[in-house]
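Homework help board

Subject: predicted structure for assignment chain

Our instructor gave us this sequence and asked us to write out the predicted structure in token form, then describe one feature. I got the tokens but I'm not sure how to describe them. Can anyone check?
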Amino acid sequence: MTETAIYTLKNGNLEARISSLGAECISLKYKGLEHLWQADPAVWGRHAPVLFPIVGRLKDDRFRYDHQSYTLKQHGFARDRNFHLLEQSEHSLSLMLKADTESLNLFPFDFELTIGYTLTDKGLQVNYRVSNPSAEKELLFSIGAHPGFRCPLLPEKEDFEDYELDFGLEKLYSLPIYFLENGLIAADRKSLPLDQGKLQLQQDLFRNDALIFDVDPLTSIRIRSQKTGKGYAMQFSDFRWLGLWTKGENAGFICIEPWNGIADTVGHDGELKNKLGIIPLSPGELHEAAFQVELLG
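My token output:
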């Protein structure tokens, strides 16, 4: 079994640490202050997992492809596999995972998945690159991010409810959201009321699991404390959906999740090719997407 390695990136007052296990960012600090959730196993034992080759849950944790049935757990397997280092500089690095015998038993496709991290002046850019090295077979996949940020960032001075969501669209007074039913996308949509594109964070917003939006017309979000001015901004225009999630009351974090993929619908027929959000990639083709995180205040 490949040993897990930890890589450190630095850019002035910014520092990030990346694990080869899952190509997961496990720390993002500014002037020594940790901004990333620190994976308390009693609450949620991850930091910022990469979701591949599916996002969300499959119906009965199974899919069918080419007359065969496969079992695949929520969010796929990439987050639990060791990636190998492609290149690293002071400010950036990239890690790769390729299909192998273990992955082919779960997911019968050849793939090359590269995750890139670059420290910017104000935060972090994350690049996803999926290529299909097969000479003849189409690749069907989804990919997404699941970074958790400390919220409240300064618990001695502020609470979760002191933070405000700002979608950057003043004329936006409501957003349709997808409703999860036992982890699957329900047939009905709900509407989330907004105040000129803004919404105060409240614990009960997440009583039925994540809030899930279509990215169109959204391209960015800010989550900022009204007491300290600190918080997070994310730009995610390369993605189709955005999820927001925390786990129960006073969990201490908020996840901002850009996805190119989504959970199965409750009525899905189980065929991978018919799955909502599945991305078909022809032999030799490449899929690229990036999101940017800015630390505020």
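Reply (TA_rk): Your tokens look well-formed. For the description, you could write something like this. Residues 92 and 213 are 30 Å apart (CA to CA). That's the kind of observation they're looking for.
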